[in-house]
Write a structure and sequence with these properties.
The complex is a heterodimer of chains A (about 375) and B (about 400). A 5-stranded mixed sheet of chain A has the order 3-2-1-5-8, with no helix packed on it. A 5-stranded mixed sheet of chain A has the order 4-10-9-6-7. Chain A is α+β, with helices and mostly antiparallel strands. In chain B, a hairpin with a 2-residue loop joins β1 and β2. With about 400 residues, chain B is an alpha+beta fold. A 5-stranded mixed sheet of chain B has the order 3-2-1-5-8. In chain B, strands 4-10-9 form a 3-stranded mixed sheet. The chains are: A alpha+beta (about 375), B alpha+beta (about 400). Chains A and B meet through β3 of A and β1, β5 and α6 of B.
Chain lengths: ~375, ~400
């Protein structure tokens, strides 16, 4: 059963296993053991191969074996896929050290290479006719290749496009892409107006455009994104205790969603006379106090009808699991402006010492008690 | 007819007959065809003609298909002459459904707008859903009244009422529920009083309710909301003006501690030790310290709330209105009472003779075993260790006796 070549490899496998055990027992560190175990696995694999092909030897008198042995078969065509698979393996190894994204790319490359290699190997021997084999290969692989390649290509284009957008200044973005859009329209118009145009020309123009976008994206990616100004949110203001009358800047649109604004528990209005009133959807008239559920995010809109810039402050009582109290506020709101505040009351009113209320710093008359049942 | 074919026909006939007879069930409190208020009546007025039209169309289609199948079945005859297109028929079969749909759309849109009306609200109640029960709070309006004009009979200032399980409303009053949710999306539905309304966290939704007659109207959550969705039920209790006033007065009454030395007094101590972490009893003070006992469900429960038990024995149900606090005969007595007698029977609450001790004790013994809830420690990793539902409290039988005695006085 065992051929001469396989015996040599089996012996080497056993030696590697013994060495691995010996090393693992006697030496500190796993690297040597891993190397020896890896060697044993490779040697075992080679031993199996040599057994399977009987060392590649065929008895001279055995005509049947001579006709069917591996050496008598037509050699497979050159293939790029083993190389691609090796590249994928290298990416996996490098990715383990550098970044997990590379591992994912490597695994994807290996899967693609194995699939392509398998289809190629099978199709090359599907029939005795090479042309038919080529057709079979196309029929098998194209439905998979084309969508995947299209998706990858589009992804690259979009990614490159986004890098360019992030690198250019806000006004520069408008200018550049207005020009690009006009250019696309002009080229498309020229192509459409020509009665005859070779597919090669169209492909060439498209290729130039694709390369230009990818190259721009590469340059922009290296350049890095422009400096994007970060705005404080109303939550930042409250967290840093800046809920007084001082000038503070906060992005009025930060952390505020259309859906939250469209469906609020109450709209609290600071009247010109310095009073706070609440309008609650579903309840007719205005009220001077609010009843809100506990342990629930309540969306409150604050509208300032005074000429001065004002903010709404919510004293929401103790925070669950802590000794701290929750104070939230909007940014300064100009006359006629509206801002959203989302607040949670963790405790009921009867359980807190300090009143839970809405106030407006700088306007002593603007106080609205909040009742949390 | 062959024997297998006859058997199949018999089975189909039995199934159809069973379905037909199911419609005659008398104990069907969630029957959508029995409106008990003007909002549900609006829906009823719409669904009857739509159902009738759809029924006629359905029967016409089934009969036509049956005739075609039977009359033109393959009997070896030559293939008939093939024709393509029939403009008159095609235009007719396009226009006819369009006319039917347009005809249905007019009353449908009108009903939708009518049900969304809130300007004529007489009583506002907040409802909050959480896994797996509903909480109701009755806010005090700007004029110091509750639910459109009610104030405590003793002349004291009104304070918000908070309850759960059973929504109590005055009859003949346009009630507006302002609903939301504390955790996931739930849906509020009491078929006899109105249609369904989703309750979405962070949003406020509105649902009109109005009951013509005193009585209890059952419903249940209709948006899948987790493990015990099927056990998230609700009941609306409609009381006439005088009875509603009596209910309101009782809700606002000060806490009455149990008499010293009684089993209920021992139960109060167990309650403070075991239950008060999450459940609130308004006005309860710790006899040992003299301090007000304040629950902190926000520290233990994912939704941040647990049912208020101040007047548990006035509301006939517990655990998300899934089980009755009344024995079956006492429950039937209340549910089947005439509109004139209903209020008195309901306001009597749960008496010792009528207390459904079996379910209540099972619940106290091991709540997660009775109602599926995320209460096991290994199920709490995603909720920062907080429970969704009531946990197993490892109460002794003696403690359960004491708690039952204490809870029985909560009315």
């Amino acid at each position: 059963m065992f051929t001469n070549g396989s015996k040599l490899l089996i012996g080497a496998t056993v030696a590697a296993v013994v060495a691995a055990v010996m090393y693992g027992v006697t030496q500190d560190g796993a690297l040597g053991t891993i190397g020896l175990v890896s060697a044993a696995i490779v040697l075992a694999f080679l031993a199996g191969v040599t057994i399977a092909i009987r060392d590649g030897n065929v008895p001279p008198g055995d005509e049947m074996a001579l006709a069917t042995c591996a050496a008598a078969q037509r050699a497979p065509g050159a293939s790029i896929w083993p190389l691609a698979g090796a590249l994928g393996a290298a990416l996996v190894v490098v990715g383990l050290v550098v970044h997990e994204a590379l591992v994912m790319v490597g695994v994807a490359v290996i899967i693609a290479a194995v699939a392509e290699w398998a289809v190629q190997s099978w199709s090359e021997r599907a029939t005795a006719d090479e042309h038919v084999n080529d057709e079979i290969r196309e029929r098998m692989a194209s439905p998979l290749e084309l969508p995947v390649l299209a998706a990858v290509g589009l992804g690259l284009l979009i990614f490159a496009f986004s890098r360019v957008m992030l690198t250019l200044t806000k006004s520069g973005t408008v200018v550049v892409f207005s020009v690009v859009a006009a250019l696309v329209l002009a080229v498309a118009g020229i192509i459409a107006s020509r009665k005859q145009l070779s597919s090669g020309t169209v492909a060439g123009v498209c290729s130039i455009a694709v390369v230009a976008v990818l190259a721009s994206g590469l340059v922009a990616g290296v350049q890095g994104p422009r400096e994007i100004e970060e705005h404080e949110t109303t939550g930042d203001l409250a967290a840093s205790g800046r809920c007084g009358v001082e000038e503070t800047e906060a992005d009025e649109k930060a952390s505020q969603t259309v859906s939250a604004k469209s469906n609020v528990s109450a709209t609290v209005i600071l009247r010109e006379d310095g009073t706070l009133v609440a309008v609650q959807p579903g309840i007719s008239g205005e009220s001077t106090s609010l009843t809100l559920p506990r342990s629930n995010p309540n969306n409150i809109l604050f509208r300032n009808e005074t000429p001065e810039e004002r903010r709404l402050v919510v004293d929401a009582g103790p925070i669950a699991d802590t000794e701290e109290t929750r104070v939230l506020c909007t940014a300064l709101v100009e006359e006629g402006g509206v801002q959203l505040l989302t607040v949670v009351f963790d405790k009921p009113s009867f359980a807190v010492e300090e009143p839970m209320q809405l106030t407006v710093p700088g306007v002593e008359t603007a106080v609205m008690p909040v009742v949390v049942p | 007819m062959t024997s297998p074919a006859r058997r199949r026909l018999t089975a189909a006939a039995l199934a159809a007959g069973g379905l037909l007879l199911a419609g005659c069930a008398s104990d069907a409190p969630q029957d959508t065809w029995q409106p008990e208020g003007p909002n549900a009546q609006k829906i009823h007025n719409l669904q009857w003609p739509v159902f009738a039209i759809a029924g006629v169309v359905g029967i016409a289609v089934f009969v036509t298909v049956a005739i075609v199948i039977i009359r033109f079945r393959d009997r070896g005859q030559p293939i008939p002459e093939q024709t393509h297109g029939n403009p008159a028929l095609e235009i007719g079969l396009t226009i006819l459904p369009a006319i039917i749909l347009a005809g249905i759309a007019v009353p449908t849109v009108a009903t939708v707008f009518a049900l969304a009306e809130t300007d004529d609200t007489e009583c506002t109640i907040n409802v909050t859903g959480q896994q797996w029960w509903w909480e109701y709070d009755y806010p005090v309006a700007e004029d110091g009244t509750i639910c459109g004009g009610y104030t405590p009979s003793n002349g004291e200032a009104a304070s918000p009422i908070i309850t759960s399980g059973q929504l109590v409303i005055p009859t003949g009053t346009k009630v507006l529920l302002r609903g939301t949710s504390r955790d996931v999306i739930h849906s509020y539905w009491i078929p006899a009083l109105n249609g369904k309304r989703d309750m979405v966290p962070g949003r406020v939704h509105y649902l009109r309710l109005e009951a013509d007659q005193p009585g209890i109207y059952a419903g249940q959550c209709t948006e899948f909301c987790g493990l015990s969705h099927a056990n998230m039920r609700m009941e609306a209790v409609a009381l006439d003006e005088a009875d509603f006033q009596a209910w309101l007065d009782n809700e606002l009454e000060a806490y009455t501690p149990p008499e010293e030395g009684t089993l209920a007094a021992e139960g109060e101590a167990v309650y403070i030790q075991q239950c008060a972490r999450c459940h609130q009893v308004n006005g309860l003070t710790d006899p040992a310290s003299g301090e007000l006992v304040v629950s902190a469900p926000d520290q233990y429960v994912w939704s941040g709330a647990a049912p208020n038990l101040t007047n548990l024995m006035t509301r006939n149900t517990f655990a998300g209105a899934t089980w009755d606090l009344l024995t079956e005969s006492c429950r039937d007595d209340v549910w089947n009472a005439s509109p004139e007698e209903f209020g008195a029977k309901y306001l009597e609450g749960v008496t010792e003779e009528c207390l459904n001790q079996v379910d209540l004790r099972e619940w106290l013994r091991n709540a997660p075993a009775k109602k599926p809830m995320y209460a096991e420690p290994e199920q709490l990793t995603e909720t920062d260790g907080k429970y969704r539902g009531m946990p197993y409290l490892a109460l002794s039988e003696e403690q359960i006796d004491q708690l039952v005695a204490y809870l029985l006085e909560r009315k």
